[in-house]
Backbone:
C-alpha cells in the first residue's frame, strides 16, 4: 500500500507539473478500439487522496482488535478495495469504470459481512442489493451510449456526443448514470443503506467507505457535467444543488437524533456530500475548487473521526459505539478526547482546522455566484454539525459513566487517527498547496482539449 501510494503521488506530481495527462493504451490498441488508462489531473488527485486514506486505514487495521482482521481474506479484500477505487479514477473507458466499481462492491460487501457485529451480514446484503441496482442502471446507461455512439472511451464518447447530441437514447443514458452515482455516493434519497452499513462494518473498513469510497459518485457527477454531457450540464447542476441542500438538511437532522457514534458519522457523510454536490452544482471555477478542497478535507476528517469512534467502541465493556454504552468512558482517555474534539471542530468548519478552509471557500464561491437562498439554507444546516459533534464529545468524555461501567484498559491503537488529525491541523494552518492544486484542477476541467489530444495520441 505504501508503494502504491508513492506511485500515485508521483503520477499526480508529473501530471500537475507537465499539464499533460498520462495515457496508456492497454495491449497497444489505439483509441477508440482498445481500453485507455487516461489519468488527468482530477483522476490523479482522486487516486492520490484515496490511496493516502487507504494507507491510514491499513495502519489502523494493523493495530485494531477486531476478530474479522484475523481472517485470511481480510487483507486481500482490503487491497481489492484499493484496486477498484484507484482503477475507477484512472480508467478512461466507461465499461472499465463499471468493472472497477464492481470490485469495490464485492470487496466492500464481503468485508462488512465478516464484521464482529452480528448485524454485519444484514448490512452487507443491503449494500449488495443496492449496488446491484446501481450496476443495472450503469449497464443500461453503457448499453444506451454504445448503441448510440459506438464507443466506450471517455474522450471519444464526449466528442461524439458533442457532435450528435440528439440521439434518442442519450436522455435515458444520462438518467441511468445519474441514478448510478446517486447510489454510489448515498445521495438523498438513495442513502438508506449507508447508516446500517457503516455502523456495523469493521472500523478500518467503515472509515474507508465513508471517507473515500463515497467520493466515487461525486467523481462521476464531475465527469457527467464537465466531460460527457456539458450541453445538458445546466439541468444536471440544478438537480445536484437541490439534492445537495436536501442532503445537508436531512443528514444533519438525522445525525442529531441518532443513538450511535458511528451511525452519527455515517449520517454526517450524507450532509457533507451535500455540501460537495452544491459546489459542483454551482459549477463556477471557484465553486469547483471548493468542491475539490471539501472532498479532500472531508476524507481526512471523516476517516479520523470514524477511527476514533471505533477506538472508543473497542474500549467499551461490550464492543459498541452506542452512546448508552460509551457515555463517560472517555474520561479514562483524555488524549483520545482531544483528537476527537479537533476532528469535530474540523467537521463543523471551525478554525484553525482544514474544515474551516473548506466552508470558507464554499461560502465565498456561493456569494460570488449570488446564490444567497442556498447559502442561507446550508448555513443554518451547518450549525447542526457543531451541535451533534459537540454532543457526542460531551457524552463520551464529559458526562459521568453509568454506575459500574468501566472502560477496558486496552483497545485499538490511535496512531492512524492521530496522524490524520495532524493533517487536519496542518492543512488548516497551511492550506496553500491544496488550494493551488484544487484551483489548477478546476481550470483543467474547464478546458478538456489537452485530455482529448493526449488520449488520441497516447
Residues:
Amino acid at each position: 500500500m505504501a508503494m502504491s501510494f508513492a506511485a500515485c503521488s508521483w503520477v499526480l506530481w508529473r501530471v500537475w507539473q507537465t499539464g499533460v495527462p498520462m495515457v496508456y493504451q492497454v495491449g497497444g490498441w489505439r483509441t477508440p478500439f482498445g481500453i485507455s488508462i487516461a489519468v488527468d489531473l482530477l483522476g490523479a488527485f482522486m487516486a492520490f487522496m484515496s490511496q493516502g486514506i487507504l494507507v491510514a486505514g491499513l495502519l489502523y487495521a494493523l493495530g485494531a482488535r477486531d476478530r474479522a482482521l484475523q481472517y485470511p481474506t481480510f487483507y486481500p479484500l482490503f487491497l481489492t478495495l484499493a484496486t477498484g477505487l484507484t482503477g475507477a479514477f484512472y480508467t478512461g473507458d466507461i465499461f472499465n469504470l463499471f468493472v472497477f466499481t464492481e470490485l469495490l462492491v464485492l470487496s466492500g460487501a464481503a468485508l462488512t459481512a465478516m464484521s464482529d457485529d452480528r448485524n454485519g451480514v444484514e448490512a452487507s446484503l443491503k449494500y449488495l442489493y443496492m449496488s446491484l441496482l446501481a450496476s443495472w442502471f450503469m449497464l443500461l446507461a453503457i448499453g444506451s451510449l454504445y448503441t448510440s455512439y459506438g464507443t466506450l472511451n471517455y474522450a471519444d464518447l464526449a466528442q461524439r456526443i458533442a457532435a450528435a447530441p440528439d440521439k434518442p437514447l442519450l436522455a435515458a443514458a444520462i438518467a441511468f448514470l445519474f441514478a448510478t452515482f446517486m447510489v454510489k455516493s448515498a445521495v438523498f434519497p438513495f442513502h438508506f443503506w449507508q447508516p446500517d452499513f457503516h455502523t456495523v462494518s469493521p472500523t478500518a473498513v467503515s472509515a474507508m467507505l465513508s471517507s473515500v469510497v463515497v467520493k466515487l459518485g461525486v467523481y462521476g457527477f464531475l465527469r457527467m457535467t464537465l466531460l460527457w454531457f456539458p450541453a445538458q450540464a445546466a439541468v444536471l447542476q440544478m438537480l445536484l444543488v437541490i439534492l445537495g441542500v436536501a442532503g445537508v438538511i436531512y443528514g444533519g437532522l438525522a445525525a442529531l437524533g441518532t443513538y450511535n457514534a458511528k451511525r452519527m458519522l455515517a449520517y454526517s457523510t450524507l450532509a457533507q456530500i451535500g455540501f460537495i454536490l452544491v459546489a459542483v452544482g454551482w459549477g463556477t471555477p471557484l465553486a469547483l475548487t471548493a468542491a475539490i478542497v471539501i472532498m479532500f478535507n472531508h476524507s481526512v476528517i471523516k476517516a479520523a473521526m470514524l477511527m476514533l469512534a471505533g477506538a472508543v467502541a473497542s474500549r467499551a465493556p461490550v464492543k459498541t459505539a452506542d452512546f448508552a454504552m460509551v457515555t463517560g468512558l472517555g474520561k479514562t482517555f483524555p488524549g483520545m478526547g482531544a483528537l476527537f474534539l479537533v476532528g469535530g471542530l474540523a467537521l463543523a468548519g471551525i478554525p484553525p482546522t482544514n474544515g474551516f478552509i473548506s466552508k470558507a471557500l464554499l461560502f465565498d464561491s456561493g456569494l460570488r455566484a449570488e446564490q444567497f437562498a442556498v447559502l442561507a439554507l446550508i448555513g443554518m444546516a451547518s450549525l447542526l454539525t457543531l451541535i451533534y459533534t459537540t454532543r457526542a464529545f460531551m457524552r463520551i468524555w464529559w458526562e459521568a459513566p453509568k454506575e459500574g461501567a468501566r472502560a477496558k484498559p486496552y483497545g485499538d491503537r490511535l496512531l492512524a487517527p492521530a496522524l490524520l488529525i495532524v493533517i487536519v491541523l496542518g492543512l488548516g494552518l497551511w492550506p496553500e498547496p491544496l488550494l493551488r492544486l484544487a484551483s489548477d484542477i478546476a481550470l483543467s476541467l474547464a478546458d478538456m482539449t489537452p485530455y482529448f489530444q493526449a488520449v488520441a495520441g497516447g
About this structure: The CA atoms of residues 109 and 125 lie 7 Å apart. The two ends are 28 Å apart (CA to CA). The chain has a mean pLDDT of 90. The chain has 20 helices and two strands.
